[in-house]
Task: inverse folding
């Protein structure tokens, strides 16, 4: 009888160990780092991956400039600046801003993108980290994924998707197309999105903010996200959403510590 009880106790103990190991295994991350840029070479931006964003006519790029004063790689950070335009006789815009993207150089498909970044507290500042289709498509048909947008000195950041379904058809609540998450001001925060064939999963500092799923619908363009995208990181000042900048608070800077891309094991 004693041997029987010892056997039972041993069986329970082994079962507990197996259960514990299983739980540990289940909690282990199943993402493998496959690419990163940690900006550790001072003064050098990897131009095989990154290009400076040219000026455009939209709110987000109408102050973009190629000026060297707006860009730096220093102390393990990519630094993008927003400044008062020092010479409006040459360029008439009131401010100049810097931004980079991986357009025509590097695309990101199924996997998880994480970006560790820090911003200043400036009125009218609108830093953004986002994705557009690697093979160019008319907006918003091709889709847009906003991993992070922050306004002024807010203690939250926005994470949003845009598509023909949400923008043209106005179906932006079924399912919800954006969420916000808390950030720590004047500190680095980590912004991420998981790109799956049937969903986009957003988080800030490892905390899930929302998931945008592919759904069954007869409406056009609900999930144009199962493909490669390129990454944009830009410092912008002013715009219809963020409002006017306060020149007394400038310059503003956006510091990117690293960009990492993971894929499933």
Result:
């Amino acid at each position: 009888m004693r041997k029987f009880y010892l056997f039972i106790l041993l069986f329970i103990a082994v079962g507990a160990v197996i259960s514990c190991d299983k739980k540990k295994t289940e909690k282990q991350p199943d993402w493998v780092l496959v690419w990163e840029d940690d900006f550790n070479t001072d003064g050098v931006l990897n131009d095989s991956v990154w290009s400076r964003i040219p000026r455009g006519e939209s709110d987000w790029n109408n102050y973009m400039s190629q000026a060297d004063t707006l860009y730096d790689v220093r102390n393990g950070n990519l630094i993008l600046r927003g400044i008062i335009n020092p010479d409006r006789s040459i360029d008439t815009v009131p401010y100049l801003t810097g931004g980079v993207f991986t357009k025509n150089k590097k695309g990101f498909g199924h996997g998880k993108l994480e970006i560790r970044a820090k911003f200043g507290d400036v009125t009218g500042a609108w830093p953004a980290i986002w994705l557009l289709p690697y093979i160019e498509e008319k907006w918003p048909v091709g889709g847009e994924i906003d991993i992070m947008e922050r306004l002024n000195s807010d203690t939250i950041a926005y994470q949003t998707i845009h598509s023909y379904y949400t923008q043209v058809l106005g179906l932006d609540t079924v399912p919800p197309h954006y969420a916000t998450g808390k950030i720590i001001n004047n500190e680095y925060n980590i912004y991420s999105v998981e790109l799956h064939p049937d969903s986009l999963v957003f988080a800030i500092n490892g905390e899930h903010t929302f998931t945008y799923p592919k759904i069954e619908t007869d409406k056009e363009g609900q999930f144009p996200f199962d493909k490669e995208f390129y990454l944009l990181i830009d410092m912008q000042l002013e715009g219809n959403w963020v409002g006017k900048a306060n020149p007394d608070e400038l310059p503003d800077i956006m510091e990117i510590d690293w960009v990492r891309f993971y894929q499933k094991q």
